[in-house]
Amino acid sequence: MARPSRAPERRAELIEVARQAVFERGVLNLRLRDIAEGAGLSSGSVLYYFPTLSDLLQEVQREAVARFCSARELAAATKSSPAERLLAMIRSGLPSGPEDELCVLLYELGTIARRDPAYAARHITLYEQQVRIYTGILEAGAATGEFTLTADAVSIARNLVALEDGYGLHLTQAVPTLEPATAEAMLLSYARTATSNPLEDRS
């Protein structure tokens, strides 16, 4: 009887090694040899499972995007009212600082999107999924009368995601230019104005 293939497990191991390497070294300084050494393999063995380093990093990006969006959806879904869901979304989208592994991964891999359509497509997916979640919350709040929107829901959602991205870049720098609490306060200030709701924390 043939032995079961270990390819899925080996691929998962390589994705994990690559994820850690991107977080620690960044994509600009990353080499195939770094992944191979981290996995205890030769560079040729890594290429057996992933034809190029780019193919491997695309899997890291795919996993990071899925994990980030799922976590945000879950954070919002656990709340009952639109205002509470909006608060949860805002708080789940900002990095905690330079050591926030998942957000750092997304920013690092997002730098490739300027030159590579495959990376750009996943970066667009990340943006669109977050806009979709925000839009649903905003429309629900408007429908129940909890929110009085100052613009259409999609425009407000896009602004919220853009603000998160901008503040997130500052928060993940080697020397952050502002504190997470400050970034959250500025996001909340915009959200309160855009929804005409005080967005008070009732927890």
UniProtKB/TrEMBL annotation:
<dbReference type="InterPro" id="IPR001647">
    <property type="entry name" value="HTH_TetR"/>
</dbReference>
<keyword id="KW-0805">Transcription regulation</keyword>
<keyword id="KW-0238">DNA-binding</keyword>
<dbReference type="InterPro" id="IPR009057">
    <property type="entry name" value="Homeodomain-like_sf"/>
</dbReference>
<feature type="domain" description="HTH tetR-type">
    <location>
        <begin position="8"/>
        <end position="68"/>
    </location>
</feature>
<dbReference type="InterPro" id="IPR036271">
    <property type="entry name" value="Tet_transcr_reg_TetR-rel_C_sf"/>
</dbReference>
<dbReference type="Pfam" id="PF13977">
    <property type="entry name" value="TetR_C_6"/>
</dbReference>
<dbReference type="GO" id="GO:0003700">
    <property type="term" value="F:DNA-binding transcription factor activity"/>
</dbReference>
<keyword id="KW-0804">Transcription</keyword>
<feature type="DNA-binding region" description="H-T-H motif">
    <location>
        <begin position="31"/>
        <end position="50"/>
    </location>
</feature>
<dbReference type="InterPro" id="IPR050109">
    <property type="entry name" value="HTH-type_TetR-like_transc_reg"/>
</dbReference>
<keyword id="KW-0678">Repressor</keyword>
<dbReference type="Pfam" id="PF00440">
    <property type="entry name" value="TetR_N"/>
</dbReference>
<protein>
    <submittedName>
        <fullName>Transcriptional regulator, TetR family</fullName>
    </submittedName>
</protein>
<dbReference type="InterPro" id="IPR039538">
    <property type="entry name" value="BetI_C"/>
</dbReference>
<dbReference type="GO" id="GO:0000976">
    <property type="term" value="F:transcription cis-regulatory region binding"/>
</dbReference>
